Amino acid sequence: MNRFFADRKNIIEDQQRIFIDDPEDVKHIGKVLRLAEKDIIEICDGENGIYIGEISTISKGKVEVKIQEKKISDTEPPIEVTLFQGIPKGAKMEMIIQKCTELGIHSIIPLNTSRTVVQLKDRKDEIKKIERWQKIAQEAAKQSKRGVIPNVGQPIEFSDLEETLAAFDFAIIPYEKETRIGLKSLLKNKIGQRKIAVIIGPEGGFEEAEIEKAKEFGSVPITLGKRILRTETAGFVVLSTLMYELGDLGGI
């Protein structure tokens, strides 16, 4: 069944109606999928609520759906992982957002570090980037049947982590010079802990001073093995392992 997201303001439960007015979704429903009146679709409110509905009308700028059933999404993992991603070059950030959304990420925060090469020009450029990244998260959430659209936050500085990490049960930061603590051994003592922060450096990795600061902030440096992973790979590996060990990847 095809799934779409709708703004809460467009879900009118007392009238059993939902309006989809995103231009791309309207076009996709009518022109690409060639859905018609009386076809059944799923609509997600982005907050874990799922509505099964019958298309009642399709117009140029809007699709109206009659609600038949409401349920809670069962596709969200039991853990909330936030990825603090050192901003990489090119389209790597887009791929990271897409794949992490598929794997069940809760939120993604772009991170400026000492070795971050990409610099957003100004506030206008930053807003444009965030909107683009959020749209990618939404499309990936739709494709992977997520009940929640991961939030792509505003970029933060490395120093901002000190205050931000206080909200998490634990935080990990993969570092190529760490040889003692591995992710496997660390997670043995983390069963039942729900809010997790993962901090990934940009292409050039972290400076040693940043690792020391991260430790002061409460983060645990870990090794991911003897091979050096790219920035666009490291987050996937950590998230996949967390979902397998503490989440629902592979079933219950």
Automatic annotation (TrEMBL):
NCBIfam families: PRK11713.1-5, RsmE family RNA methyltransferase. Residues 76-242 form the Ribosomal RNA small subunit methyltransferase E methyltransferase domain. Residues 20-67 form the Ribosomal RNA small subunit methyltransferase E PUA-like domain. GO terms for cellular component: cytoplasm. Its EC number is 2.1.1.193. GO terms for molecular function: rRNA (uridine-N3-)-methyltransferase activity. Pfam families: Methyltrans_RNA, PUA_4. This is Ribosomal RNA small subunit methyltransferase E. SUPFAM superfamilies: alpha/beta knot, PUA domain-like. Belongs to the RNA methyltransferase RsmE family. Keywords: Cytoplasm, Methyltransferase, rRNA processing, S-adenosyl-L-methionine, Transferase. It is found in: Cytoplasm. It comes from Geosporobacter subterraneus DSM 17957.
